[in-house]
Amino acid sequence: MKVPKKTKRYCPYCKKHTEHSISLSKHKERGTLKKGSIARAMKRGRGIGFGNKGRWGSKPAVKGLKTSKKTDFRYKCIVCNKTHTQRKGFRTKKVVFE
Fold first, then answer.
1. Which domains does the chain have, with CATH numbers?
2. Distance CA 68, CA 63 (A)
3. Are 57 and 33 in contact (CB under 8 A)?
4. What are the φ/ψ torsions at residue 30 (nearest 5 degrees)?
5. Mapping DSSP to helix (H, G, I), strand (E, B) and coil, where does residue 66 land?
6. How remote is the C-alpha of 86 from its chain's centroid?
7. Which DSSP letter does residue 33 get?
8. What is the pLDDT of residues 1-39, one digit of tens each?
9. pTM of this prediction?
10. Phi-psi region of 48 (alpha: psi -120 to 50; beta: other; left: phi over 0)
11. Residue 45, CA distances (Å) to 8, 23, 34, 41, 71 in order
């Protein structure tokens, strides 16, 4: 999908419509806390043995993978230089800035 590099949008900081530059969100990697806490729980004796193991039990079945990701745009105001995000992403396979 083709997206313009700049657009006029409402800036919640300036409280008026100003020119904004559009960029995609950079960081989307998961932290290691979840995996570490599961490993730590195993060492503590949680989630081993018989019966209902609760949160350390079997993992849910993977039903099907989606072929596209939702957009995560950052809008940077040219006047006040502050950034805000889009409220609702939409599915697209590829984003190209023009």
1. 1-27+70-98 (3.10.450.80)
2. 16
3. no
4. -80, 145
5. coil
6. 11
7. H
8. 999 999 999 999 999 999 999 999 887 776 666 677 878
9. 0.66
10. beta
11. 57, 46, 17, 6, 41
